[in-house]
């Protein structure tokens, strides 16, 4: 499909630079075949049915943004995928100053050497020493806010909390599964009281989620792989919910993509551990999920293509136009949508 079909104009003032407080006070646009409804995230228990199950991503964002020096050259690096105990694939700013084996000093006694430049321009960074890389990043790294936020303000201490979900447990993501940022313990308790269950899986979100689609046709776009896991008990539980007539609602496109990667042709969700580079565009037949709660996405992005596949391109374009007109806040720290096809 032509990528221009997934374009729209977003006024810059619609980009949220801070999350709502409290988190579940964010607005939520409910989109169904019957139309649109304005709600808040706190209204979610009333929008679902007893027996439904929400699936959250329990990945934890690491401080994956690094600034360093190679000689007199300033080098910026954003880690996006672990390739080994001390080796991470990274997108590098000022990469023309690197060569294979070049050492980068990130300060705080943190150094790495660059190896194996890939076709997409990324480098493998191998960190020196014996300390776990996670500890090195705690010293030298900072939270990797999306460029549409980081370009407008500096990362600060608030982001260490704001850009982490209440489910964050498994370190490895370089971007938050942002739909889950809206959840609080009190909202989870209200959902449980309404008979709505929840489960978790793990998908370590990579920096590729922010990369623009540069191809003119979706068939020519290559997704970056991300590592995920659904354990056997969780897979069995999701299948049991659907078998008894409940709905599996993915919270976030990351949860949805992993479930769909793990679902076989008969609609059975299988245990999964490994990389996925699934790319969902209109025409895709969803097999493992029955709905999606997600934030509002960038124009021409793979995530906007995904929600268009779920709800239909015309319906999602109309929903986004409504959200823009009625003051919804967009992107990672913005408001939510509940998509029930």
UniProtKB/TrEMBL annotation:
GO terms for molecular function: S-adenosylmethionine:tRNA ribosyltransferase-isomerase activity. Its EC number is 2.4.99.17. InterPro entries: QueA, QueA_dom1, QueA_dom2, QueA_sf. Pathway: tRNA modification; tRNA-queuosine biosynthesis. SUPFAM superfamilies: QueA-like. Its main location: cytoplasm. It catalyses: 7-aminomethyl-7-carbaguanosine(34) in tRNA + S-adenosyl-L-methionine = epoxyqueuosine(34) in tRNA + adenine + L-methionine + 2 H(+). Transfers and isomerizes the ribose moiety from AdoMet to the 7-aminomethyl group of 7-deazaguanine (preQ1-tRNA) to give epoxyqueuosine (oQ-tRNA). Monomer. Belongs to the QueA family. This is S-adenosylmethionine:tRNA ribosyltransferase-isomerase. It comes from Sphingomonas endophytica. The lineage of its organism: Bacteria, Pseudomonadati, Pseudomonadota, Alphaproteobacteria, Sphingomonadales.
């Amino acid at each position: 499909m032509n990528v221009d079909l997934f374009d729209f104009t977003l006024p810059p003032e619609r980009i949220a630079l801070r999350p709502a407080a409290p988190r579940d006070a964010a607005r939520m646009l409910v989109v169904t075949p019957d139309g649109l409804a304005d709600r808040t995230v706190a209204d979610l228990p009333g929008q679902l049915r007893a027996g439904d199950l929400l699936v959250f991503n329990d990945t934890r964002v690491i401080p994956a943004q690094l600034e360093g020096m190679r000689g007199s050259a300033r080098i910026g690096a954003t880690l996006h995928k672990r390739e080994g105990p001390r080796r991470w694939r990274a997108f590098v700013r000022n990469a023309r100053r690197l060569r294979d084996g070049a050492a980068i000093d990130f300060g705080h006694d943190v150094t790495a050497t660059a190896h194996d430049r890939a076709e997409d321009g990324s480098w493998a960074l191998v960190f020196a020493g014996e300390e776990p890389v996670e500890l090195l990043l705690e010293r030298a790294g900072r939270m990797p806010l999306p460029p549409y936020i980081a370009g407008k303000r500096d990362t600060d201490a608030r982001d260490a909390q704001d850009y982490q979900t209440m489910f964050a447990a498994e370190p490895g993501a370089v971007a938050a599964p942002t739909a889950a940022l809206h959840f609080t313990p009190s909202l989870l308790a209200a959902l449980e009281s309404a008979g709505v269950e929840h489960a978790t899986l793990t998908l370590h979100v990579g920096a590729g989620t922010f990369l623009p689609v540069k191809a003119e046709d979706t068939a020519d776009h290559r997704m970056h792989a991300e590592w995920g896991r659904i354990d056997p008990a969780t897979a069995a539980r999701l299948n049991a919910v659907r078998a008894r007539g409940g709905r599996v609602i993915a919270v976030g496109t990351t949860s949805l993509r992993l479930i769909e990667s793990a679902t076989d042709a008969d609609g059975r969700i299988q245990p999964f551990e490994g990389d996925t580079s699934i790319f969902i565009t209109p025409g895709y037949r969803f097999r493992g999920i029955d709905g999606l709660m997600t934030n509002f996405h960038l124009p021409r992005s793979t995530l906007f293509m995904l929600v268009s596949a779920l709800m239909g391109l015309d319906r999602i374009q109309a929903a986004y136009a409504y959200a823009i007109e009625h003051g919804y806040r967009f992107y990672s720290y913005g408001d939510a949508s509940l998509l029930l096809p």
